[in-house]
UniProtKB/TrEMBL annotation:
<dbReference type="GO" id="GO:0009055">
    <property type="term" value="F:electron transfer activity"/>
</dbReference>
<keyword id="KW-0408">Iron</keyword>
<dbReference type="GO" id="GO:0042597">
    <property type="term" value="C:periplasmic space"/>
</dbReference>
<feature type="binding site" description="covalent">
    <location>
        <position position="140"/>
    </location>
    <ligand>
        <name>heme c</name>
    </ligand>
</feature>
<feature type="binding site" description="covalent">
    <location>
        <position position="137"/>
    </location>
    <ligand>
        <name>heme c</name>
    </ligand>
</feature>
<keyword id="KW-0479">Metal-binding</keyword>
<keyword id="KW-0732">Signal</keyword>
<keyword id="KW-0813">Transport</keyword>
<dbReference type="Pfam" id="PF01322">
    <property type="entry name" value="Cytochrom_C_2"/>
</dbReference>
<protein>
    <submittedName>
        <fullName>Cytochrome C</fullName>
    </submittedName>
</protein>
<keyword id="KW-0249">Electron transport</keyword>
<keyword id="KW-0349">Heme</keyword>
<dbReference type="InterPro" id="IPR010980">
    <property type="entry name" value="Cyt_c/b562"/>
</dbReference>
<dbReference type="InterPro" id="IPR012127">
    <property type="entry name" value="Cyt_c_prime"/>
</dbReference>
<dbReference type="GO" id="GO:0022900">
    <property type="term" value="P:electron transport chain"/>
</dbReference>
<dbReference type="GO" id="GO:0005506">
    <property type="term" value="F:iron ion binding"/>
</dbReference>
<feature type="signal peptide">
    <location>
        <begin position="1"/>
        <end position="20"/>
    </location>
</feature>
Amino acid sequence: MKRMLVVAGALLLSVGAGIAQQDVANQTQTTMKATGRALGAVLSPMVKGEKPYDQAAVTTALGQLEETAKKLPTMFPESIKGVKIEGDYSASPKIWEDKAGFAAKIENYAKAVTEAKAKIKDLDSLKANVPAIGKECSACHETFRLKI
Ligand code: HEC
């Protein structure tokens, strides 16, 4: 009886951990989607002239990109390795195999965001500085994001 309780307890614990892992993986995806919207639905359309320059929207979008930079170092804990998320993209196992490489990509991205944020104040400076951010998104995705 005692043994059964222990087994049942261990099972419950592992189910609990599974749910927590899924939550973390989903949160990571939610943050990346918000990052994608900040660049793809706010900043890029302004750069291309599809939307008028709007300083408040630019500030919010850059704030999102900065928040992502802060979160990235803890967004991919070992516990979510292999956890499935919905959609077309997933995290490559390389994130955990090459931790130094991944950390370097985060650092480059964070630096690009900080530098761009300090310079962007109008449409011209937006046009001049957004590409440097986009380059770092792609640089990380190339190696660490899988298209599935
Ligand atoms: C240091 C690495 C890294 C950087 C920098 C990075 N990403 Fe990602 N991104 C990932 C990984 C890994 C995934 C796949 C796993 C996931 O979505 O949880 C991803 C997924 C995404 C997705 C797909 C989300 C979905 O499932 O629909 C979008 C959109 C995205 N990133 C946008 C961006 C944009 C825009 C930037 C730059 C402003 C950026 N990312 C910067 C690593 C990065």
